[in-house]
UniProtKB/TrEMBL annotation:
Top-rank lineage group of the source organism: Bacteria
Database matches in SUPFAM superfamilies: Dimeric alpha+beta barrel
Gene3D superfamilies: 3.30.70.100
Protein name (Swiss-Prot/TrEMBL): DUF1330 domain-containing protein
Residue stretches making up the DUF1330 domain: 2-93
PANTHER family registered for this protein in UniProt: BLR0684 PROTEIN (PTHR41521:SF4), PTHR41521
Residues making up the signal peptide according to the UniProt record: none
Amino acid sequence: MPAFWLARSLINDPVAYKRYTDQVPAIIAQYGGKVLARGGKFQVMEGPEKFKRFVVIEFPDFDSGVRCFQSDEYNEAARHRRENGAGEVETVILEAGEFTK
């Protein structure tokens, strides 16, 4: 069952944050991930308007998304946004689940 990596972020240092975003697509691909949305136009419908960037990535399954996020490669890349407050991010991995028509 597919799973989705949902992230919302606030970029405080665009130069340092770009060092992170330049590395991440290749890492995501290693785990079967496919970026569905990254940046772009958005409208907050409810809740705080703190975050200004949103990302949705589809993985073939929940475990693949978790393994990607917990991988050494990803955490090395994420170091660029975590150090010195270059970016604030909230990330959730969500299994697609069942839904009815």
